[in-house]
Amino acid sequence: MVQKTSTANGSPTANSWGAVLSMTLSVAMLIASEFMPVSLLTPIAESLDATAGQTGQAISVSGFFAVAASLLITTLVGKLNRKWVLMAMTACMLASLVLIATAPNFTVLMAARALLGVCIGGFWALATAVIMRLVPAEKVSKALAVMYTGQATAAAFAAPIGSYLGGLIGWRGVFWALVPIVAINLLWHWFALPSLPSSSRQSLKSLLSVLKRPYFARGIVAVIFTFAGAFSMFTYLRPFLETFTSLDVGMLSLMFLVLGCAGFMGTWLGGKLANGRVILLLKILPTVMGLVTLALLGFGHIVLIVAMLLGVWGAMNTAMSVGWMSWVSQNMDDAPEAAGSLIVAAIQGAILVGAAFGGVLLDHLGITGTFVGSAALSAIALLLIGSGRKLLKPA
């Protein structure tokens, strides 16, 4: 039996890092599961007799249910031990992957993605608050950076490996390959996570009271535009690379690998800036991502430049989560579960809106319209962040 990593009330001890690592693997699997359709968009669409824009809604539907789950999870689970709640979310992820791999039609695929959305929203809503209980206060930023290494890893390898393996074993085989990893992760939670009892019950009223804080409300709106701008482009990156840059499957995999590997740099950069210059980081993100998106339209026919631009975009993509979650931990430390629920709902809602918005533009205006729309959303996010003073908790 693995030694417990916390006291009965969930206080941190020196052995909590195994639990943090188990959550890191969950993050990697969540990211891989949620965004794998990006690298497999075309074959999934062809197999299920759907358009690329329609198949992109498979990301939107998971986002919709993630929004609902993130808002309701802390209310519905009440005082349940957070260890068992996190394990339930991981079990939902396992079930959704099996359903996706066996989906006979587009309807079943969407239902499976909805179940995945429940897992995503529930896990992310609790993750920051759980991390704050697993490690001492002075180690929270480090633990968050470790957890988001899972995001960087998935971003680096899930898309290129998914794209490559999809050409060898089909898109269904790619999702089957994730199943045993998630099953192992579920067992790891069982042994590594400490008992995390909850002594309080969140309510919708408590969520609203947090949202009434002006600096937090402004931050939430900025989050929505930042992530919507990013994912209205990212969701349809493969069609862009296929039609605009004219890449084959092998080069597609290489491009996704470049984009993903840059995420490790983004995680490092995010961790460094978030400690004392989180507002600077939040301003850099939409600025650079919007400019890169427009630059792709201008230089999209030059493979080398495309690779460089995707590397920059990939770094900013992983830094987004680190930056905004660090902002929450620094400015909402008195209500981490409520703030966590709301910001996760905002992020997932933004992914939903961004993917849907990009899909509509793709089907009606083409890929150029999708990318211009993405850059416009990023510009609005930058205006909302402004100098950053209005995003900070009053002294």
TrEMBL record:
GO terms for cellular component: plasma membrane. The keyword Nucleus does not apply. GO terms for molecular function: transmembrane transporter activity. It is a multi-pass membrane protein. The chain crosses the membrane at residues 20-38, 58-77, 84-104, 110-131, 143-162, 174-194, 215-237, 249-271, 278-296, 302-327, 339-361, 367-385. It comes from the Bacteria. Gene3D superfamilies: MFS general substrate transporter like domains. Keywords: Cell membrane, Membrane, Transmembrane, Transmembrane helix. PROSITE patterns: MFS. SUPFAM superfamilies: MFS general substrate transporter (SSF103473). Residues 19-393 form the Major facilitator superfamily (MFS) profile domain. It is found in: Cell membrane. Its main location: membrane. This is MFS transporter. The lineage of its organism: Bacteria, Pseudomonadati, Pseudomonadota, Gammaproteobacteria, Oceanospirillales.
